[in-house]
Amino acid sequence: MSDKPSKPSKPSSTRRAKRRAARRGDPVPELEPSEAGEPEAPEPAVSYTIDDLAAATSIPSRTIRFYQSSGVLPKPEKVGRIAYYGPQHIERLELIGKMQDRGLRMRAIKDLVTQVERGDVVLHEWLGLEEQLSSAWVDDAPKLLSRAQLEDLIGERRPGFIAELVRAGTLEQHNDAYLAPSPGLLQVAARLDDAGVSVEVATGASGILQKHLAKAAKELAGFFAEHAGDGFGQGDSVTGISDAFRELRATGPESVRLIFAREMEQVLRKMVETGETSRRLDKQVKRRR
User: Fold this and answer.
1) What does 208-250 look like in DSSP terms, one character per residue?
2) pLDDT tens-digit profile of 131-163?
3) C-alpha torsion 119→87→126→220, nearest 10
4) Rounded distance, CA 249 to CA 256, Å?
5) 174-200: per-residue pLDDT in tens?
6) The pTM is what?
7) Long-range interactions of 230-236: CB distance < 8 A, separation 24+
8) Structural domain of residue 234, as residue ranges?
9) 27 in any annotated domain
10) Domain end residue (candidates: 217, 237, 256)
């Protein structure tokens, strides 16, 4: 090591100004904290009282207190008797609002934020899965149709057909327009009518299908959820489960069509083989006489 003394540091501009002011007899300027060798004070953290937080988020203070008591909003920091909230509370309130817009109930939101805080779930991955689960499986949204649009959809029909659809609930009349809850099923009813299947029979068949498919869908959803990450989805990641549901949405309807077709085929074949078909037809003929 060199024995040469270190060169003294050059005085700052504020120190030079102070010396010049002292020689002239002027007021001596104060040194900045950083130039005096003292660390600069950190910027104060942003904090809000509950009224400030309510004003900043447009959420009533009573609602904020409800979220806090429900466990979805972290507790504020208390200084004396005053509670102070920070930017993290604003972020959480925004998240709660987004989850409510997606239809989640408070208990589901609490479970989600708890999992996120524990690191069990990555929020953006969960949002992707939730979007996948909430998206439509078929493009069959309700439509409000004029009389001309209705005729374009189902073609020119026999007298009384539209009135039958309205009575069955397949159509809803709103003044001069018609609301079709399911345009797809409306077209099915028209095709069946062409084949001699009445609106009443078609509606009854639709009700039977809906009853049993609703039960099957509920059981299947629970079954897939039970095996999520363990036979349903690549690995145990949320992304893998989301990918599995995406593929299920693409292949599920075709699977239902194939299974339904096979089951109908077996049932009808058995009716023919056992003579049940002829007995039922004979019974109907005698009834009409």
Assistant:
1) HHHHHHHHHHHHHHHHHHHTBTTTBSSTT-HHHHHHHHHHHHH
2) 767 777 888 999 999 999 999 999 999 999 999
3) 100
4) 11
5) 989 999 999 999 999 999 999 999 999
6) 0.59
7) none
8) 227-289
9) no
10) 217
